[in-house]
Amino acid sequence: MAITLSASDVPGAPLSARLTPAQVWGIVLLTPYLLVFLAFVVYPVGYGLWLARQPSSYVTLYHDPIFARAAVNTLIFLVIGINIKMLIALFLSGFFVVQRAWIKWLSVLFILPWAVPSIPTILSVRFMLNPEWGVINTLIFKFTGEDGPNWLNDPAVALTMAIAVHIWKSLPFWTLILITGRLAISHDLFEAAEVDGATWWQKFRYITWPSMQTLYVTCTLLSMIWTLGDFNSVYLLTGGGPADLTHVLATLGIRYLRLDQLSLAMASIVCALPFVLPLVYFMMKRLSR
Amino acid sequence: MKPATLRLPSLRLPTLREVGTEARLLLIGIPVFIWTMVPIYHMFLFAISPKEDAFSGKLWPDHPTLHNFEIVFREQHYFLRDFYIQFWNSLVIAVAVGALTLFVATAAAFSISRLRVPGGRLVMNLALFTYFIPAAFLAVPMYRTMGNYGLLNNHWALILAMVTIASPYAIWVLKQASDKLPVELDEAAIMDGATTLQIFRLVYIPLMMPSLVAIGTYAILLAWNEYLYAFLLLSNDTEITLPVALGNFLAADDSPWELLMTTGFIYALPPAAIYYAFKRYMVGGLTAGAVKS
Asked: Which residue of B has its CA nearest to A219?
């Protein structure tokens, strides 16, 4: 094995002599982040894993029906919710690149859900869905004379609404990203296809999709990872109810925490790691190129 | 190229096909408009309605009023006793998170990208890894950690937690941006006898301004909008931020919705204004970096 020794590798030389001034400054400037990382990432994660070390926590989790329900809900949220959201975003990105003055104005308004904080708007939706006073049931009563459904009292409807709120909030962001993807496609391709008499579907299938599929898949995976941490959409709309049937993993951890079952809270998060870490690894590979 | 036909646009009637295209665009545009605006308009409607009008299901109240805003600004309700101090808390925390994130992330990005510090790539990857951990997963251990540090119910707990969450993305975007600056700039400055700090201050910071504005705005909005961490880490009525105060409205069954929506509306205005004011930085600086394929 060949080892080349340069002056800077000589062991025993004082540290300052082995580093150039620029490298010393580099270490100094990197220190603030390293301190933040050690104190507020490494320590909490290590401490959390230590809290989740007892096998008995996992046995308790396994027997807790709320945990199983939350895992299923999370899966529905991610697999169905996110794919619907991304398909709509893909469709709308095609709509927003059409050159019209009114579409330009609409796109300015369309960003609003992303630009405003989620708490007041989610509570606004919650009030709309209130069975007695909410505007939706008031209107149903006005037009049909019948009482509307008790929206958030049915776990399936409540979860659907939470997914809808999530889509409402984050659709503009992903649409914006996919619009940048579409605008990067050379316009000549579409003109050539136009001359050849390609249909709308053929243009999408053979021009748009091939140039956007990497971006689309990246966005979908990223959105799935982030949605795992979407606490607000569920907690502020349903609070996990009725009867703790609409929890997702993000709200379940907080529920256990509030019940002072810290080891269960951490164990429920650790259970999600085998699914999260491969996705994270894949994303890091993609983004750190 | 389409065949060029001689025609005067103002005298021409639209063809059937063009009408069809416009109709289809409207058929998408109108639902998108309604879907986007309904929750926001509903909130606005509550804010300008007197208490008894708010539930009528009308599109516009019979007697629109600013009375709700008056109640909020005069703190004339049990839930609103500490409105000003909570607004102030939100503001101080957001600005502190913006400033600290900028400091931490700019220093780190300069160090990794320009000074090529040994181990820089590893640090970048660790930061990127943190960026992908869902924030709600880190919340539980973070809560305990802040307890161990004795920071619970202290604004520093929330500020430090938010800096932790904001910096990975900030470092990543700033590193991408600084990688694009030509190396020759640094070399020329070194030839002129500039020290590392002078390069940082006089060459690097001015050139990075657009990205710095974008990142500062990103961190401020992230902190202003944060609910989960604020609600876990702060609990006294005079320590909490506005979103936590809004969530506390739900504690009572007879909470005054119109006041909650009014406060929510006031709370939502600053970030929306900032977003639109810095939109060109946000779109250029953030989305370009957000997902490069």
From this structure: B291
